[in-house]
Amino acid sequence: MPDLIVVGGGLAGSEAAWQAAQRGLKVRLYEMRPRKMTPAHTTGYLAELVCSNSLGTTLIDRAGGLLKEELRRMGSLLLPLAEASAVPAGSALAVDRNVFAQKVTEALESHPNIEVVREEVTDIPQGLSIIASGPLTSNALSQAIARLTGQEHLYFFDAIAPIVVADSINMDICFRGARYGRSATAEGDYINCPMDKAQYEAFVDALVRAERIELHDFERFALQQGVRAGKSKFFEGCLPIEVMAQRGKDALRFGPLRPTGLIDPRTGREPYAVVQLRQDNLAGTLYNMVGFQTNLKFPEQRRVFRMIPGLEQAEFARYGQMHRNTFIFSPALLDPTLQFRTRPDLFFAGQITGVEGYVGNIATGLLAGWNAARLARGQEPLVLPRETMLGALLYYITHASEHDFQPMKANFGLLPPLPRRIRDKRARGRAYAERALQALEAFLAEVRAQGDGPVPPPA
Predict the structure, then answer these.
(1) Helix (H) or strand (E) segment spanning residue 30
(2) Which pTM value belongs to this model?
(3) What is the pLDDT of residue 233?
(4) Residue 168 — very low, low, confident or very high, per pLDDT cuts 50/70/90?
(5) Contacts from 80-84 at CB under 8 Å and sequence distance 24+?
(6) Residue 224's pLDDT band (cuts 50, 70, 90)
(7) Which of 39, 120, 146, 173 is at 20 to 30 A from 45, Cα to Cα?
């Protein structure tokens, strides 16, 4: 019999399983794919990324960059594997999603303390367990979690962006570059499709009028007002581009199509609007349409997106689509240790807890796996300092009010205020980061004094 059961082989479940196994626990990791697929996944790999291929900024004076540095110091497995799978993306960490998922799968399937079982789990396991079933939790397990929690789930809807084949992009029109020249490569990390005013307005018109995949009434209502995320709340983080376009002619030009910091070398000027394409695999043969989450019908995506200058003959390796995301009301159910309050040997991790973003999911998996191992050894589970980015994120999802709770990414607004006000945004970010890392190092020193501590990832 295993010491620990982990349900879900996504980012959180994979990190959790490895953290516990490295600390000596025999782990059984359940992943239903490929025997039972979700509407968004395409492979049976563990830790498959289904939305963007970007894990966000690497700059430490930004919340996402700080969270990465905390993960690095806490001994994450997935972060170095992501870095080993990186593709050019300026100051962001973007990965070849297949290479990354393959590396994670190999690391877990070859671990002597991990047994990967390809079966759907339809009920809450008994004994020490972690539920990391993710935003696409199956209906059967969702019903089991609903029975456990005694209250209904909250839902919101996410959308994934199309991917185009690089050879089908017209580079006589498009140009390479990154905002303000912040590129990791000499030629520029992004392919930029410039638009003049007439092209932009024609595109927005077509986008708004394009035919969409039919949704249920409650889904349509949610998407028109923002994505449902809690009591009377709507989450704006993953709105379809056609919904954003409905909000006004300039909504996209000040959103995902903003031209700020991009100069077209052919004109020497900033375009009226720009569609950015981000490299999606190491070979550089696929590019993700940045910010183009969509629910348009596939033929309509082909028609409308080929109106973008440079994409007139675009070949789509993947079309965008909508899928459901599921999360629990963590403030009433979880402690900051990620333990279920009425059953301390049950942990939740990942997006199902209300944490948003790839790195946040990895981080919650790390803590859940570490804490499960501590509980198995008779030690008190860890509660991270609120001054750390992960500590603040966990405090939010376990303390927010019913009216305020919604999926949350790492952001400096979650951290306790600094002792003095700093007006400059970058300087303020550096101050938050310095304080967070000092608090984390002091915390880890105490943990090491107990005979515990981060476990190093494989070389």
Answers:
(1) strand 27-30
(2) 0.84
(3) 46
(4) very high
(5) 80/457, 81/107, 81/457, 82/55
(6) low
(7) 146
Question: Which tokens in the block code for residue 38?
Answer: 């979700």
Q: Are residues 200 and 239 in the same domain?
A: yes
47 vs 79: CA distance, rounded Å: 12
DSSP state of 356: -
- The residue from 323, 340, 359 where one domain ends is 323
DSSP character at residue 353: G
pLDDT reading at 218 higher than 50: no
Residue 87 falls inside a structural domain = yes
Are the CB atoms for 334 and 148 separated by under 8 Å?
no
Structure confidence at residue 3 (pLDDT): 98
Q: Are strands 316-318 and 163-165 parallel, antiparallel or unpaired?
A: antiparallel
- Total domains in the chain come to 2
Dist CA 22 CA 35 (whole Å): 28
Say if residues 54 and 160 touch (Cβ distance below 8 Å). Answer: no
DSSP element (H, E) containing 63: helix 63-73
CATH number (domain holding residue 292): 2.40.30.260
Please write the tens of the pLDDT for every residue from 253-301. Answer: 999 999 999 999 999 999 999 999 999 998 899 999 999 989 899 999 9
Lowest mean pLDDT, pick from 60-74, 214-228, 403-417: 214-228
Residue 124's nearest CA partner among 383, 441, 346 is 346
Give the C-alpha separation, 405 to 153, whole Å: 13
Distance in angstroms (rounded) separating the CA atoms of residues 428 and 426: 5
The parent domain of residue 256 ranges over: 160-323
364 and 395, same domain (yes or no): yes
Angle between helices 389-399 and 358-376 (to 10 degrees): 80
